[in-house]
Amino acid sequence: MVECQLPKLKVEGSNPLSRSDSGYVAVVRILHGAFVVGLVAAMACGKGSKSGGGGSGAPSLGALSGTWTGTWKRSPPGPPGGGDLVLTMGASTTLKRAGTMCPPEETPATVSVAGDKVTIEVATPDVKATFTGTRNGGDITGELVTTCSLGTGTGTWTLTAK
pLDDT tens across 27-41, in order? Predict the structure, then answer.
């Protein structure tokens, strides 16, 4: 639950029931005032976390909790390679990229979800990697870009909920 403090607004001469208004105009002013207050409340409270889904039925990070396992494969023109991939989401989020030429294999990760799109990012002093993918039920597939002192490599990856 998000808690926020709304600003108190007082505008001189804003009485919606002044003597010169007809009943119709008074109702319109009251409805307009309610709309403005609702808009201010929505802007003051925000939408929640950057990584949450929001909207009608959009997946959220909670829908990705637990362990996801799969594989990754390097694309040409780089040297052939690949290995196991394990995303663990819980108290802390980590991504293990077994067989990588860009150590360390296991790193903290940041995950964001927007609809069915999932982005996993790794950023350490030694390696930066971005895994972008699409979730379909218990599977996520996509493309990756990894950069380290050896250069930049691209590839594909897949994860399945365990």
Answer: 445 544 444 333 333
Instruction: List, by residue range, all CATH 2.40.128.30 domains of the chain.
Output: 61-161
Q: What is the pLDDT of residue 49?
A: 34
**Residue 145 one-letter amino acid:** V
Buried/exposed code over 95-121 (b: 16+ C-beta within 10 A; e: otherwise): bbbeebbbeeeebebebebeeeebebe
* CATH class of domain segment(s) 61-161: mainly beta
Could you list the beta-strand ranges (E) of the chain: 66-74, 82-89, 93-97, 106-108, 110-114, 117-123, 128-136, 139-148, 151-161
Q: What is the pLDDT of residues 77-104, one digit of tens each?
A: 888 899 999 999 988 999 999 999 999 9
